[in-house]
Amino acid sequence: MSWYRTAVWFVKGLREYTRGGYESASKHFNPADVEVDVTGRSFLVTGANSGIGKATAKEIARRGGTVHLVCRNKERAEVAKEEIVTETGNQNIFLHIVDISNPKEVWKFAEKFRNDHKLNVLINNAGCMVNNRELTEDGLEKNFATNTLGTYILTTALLPLLEKEADARVITVSSGGMLVQKLNISDLQSENGTFDGTMVYAQNKRQQVVLTEQWAKAHRNIHFSVMHPGWADTPAVRSSMPDFYERMKNSLRTEAQGADTVVWLAVSAEAAQLPSGLFFQDRQPVATHLPLASTRSPLEDEEKLMEVLEEFSQKFRSTSLGT
Question: pTM score, two decimals?
Fold first, then answer.
């Protein structure tokens, strides 16, 4: 059924995920939803030095929020921070250099952050699409290490901090590409068969949807959401999907359009009124499965994913603490 899923997803994408789809959907947006002052609230945005992450951080900064930028590349991150401060006039922008694909590093950062800061909203935006199978220094497949395990460790490590705050939220930037994938817990690190970076990325994004649904069940005091930004013109798309970019570049959303729903989920009162654990596109909850696509998973597979990630997480926590 994979050909069917891919074909339906692409047709859906041409209609909904492009700039035209955003412009159509935005006619129904209520501008007042995001015309809010979030001074005094603390936001952490991963992958914040470019693309949707930077656009999100900038919009939150404009609204007065304290923004923690978590980035891998120090030089690019410093440029992004300066740009955000200059354009918004908000001085409460803080920079943290962390490689989300390095679980020990994520643990060390999270433990320190918990001691030094408060946190109201976590935005898991960092991600990668590596088109050849690469292993990290810990022997982890790089897409899985960044998109799934890194997101899992950072979120679970910061949950105690979020639990302390009123109206705490966790937003994860996923992708509509997950619609072509059924959760596969038998090959989390893509060791079997031909490696296809695009499909591995889509599988990771399906995993993020499952994580969000499971977290929402377990942590009732925090509002969890996951979203698809549409097809946006970002540095990541240009570098990871050059052929797709060349075909679609005249129809892609701007970075700000891609970030719009992230910002809405992060700051609006309306978003928090909706049930926790939903998947969003253009400020609306949408289905996580295509019709007739056979991508639903047994509950035991979803629970097994959480168990495996927790085992990985605790192993690397012990290593990071030197125990």
Answer: 0.96
| Beta-carbon contacts of residue 6 (< 8 Å; ≥ 6 apart) | 180
Residue 278's DSSP bridge partners are: 225
* Catalytically annotated residue among 4, 17, 201, 245: 201
3 state DSSP class of 154: helix
- Is 201 annotated in the active site? yes
- DSSP-based three-state secondary structure for 282: coil
User: Encoding tokens for residue 100?
Assistant: 């989300």
What's the token pair of residue 78?
A: 């410093």
Three-class SS of residue 169? strand
Structure-block tokens of residue 83: 């740009």
Tell me the C-alpha to C-alpha distance, in Å, between residue 105 and each of 41, 115, 120, 146, 162.
25, 16, 22, 12, 20
Given this model, what pLDDT does residue 321 score? 65
Residues 6+ away with beta carbon under 8 Å from 167: 120, 223, 272
Which residue, 209, 96, 206, is CA-closest to 158?
Answer: 96
**Amino acid, single-letter form, for residue 253:** R
What distances in angstroms separate CA 240 from CA 7, 15, 245, 301, 315, one per listed residue?
21, 22, 9, 30, 31
Query: Which tens digits make up the pLDDT trace of 76-89?
Result: 999 999 999 999 99
With residues binned 3-state (H G I as helix, E B as strand, rest as coil), the percentages for the chain, rounded to 5, are 55, 15, 35
Distance in angstroms (rounded) separating the CA atoms of residues 183 and 299: 11
Read off the pLDDT of residues 144-179 as tens digits, 9 standing for 90 and up.
999 999 999 999 999 999 999 999 999 999 999 999
CA distance from start to end of the chain: 46
Pairing of strands 222-227, 121-124: unpaired
Amino acid at 161: L
Residue 116, pLDDT > 50, answer yes
Which among 56, 67, 61, 63 is positioned nearest to 117, based on CA atoms?
A: 67
Rounded Cα gap, residues 158 and 218, in angstroms: 14
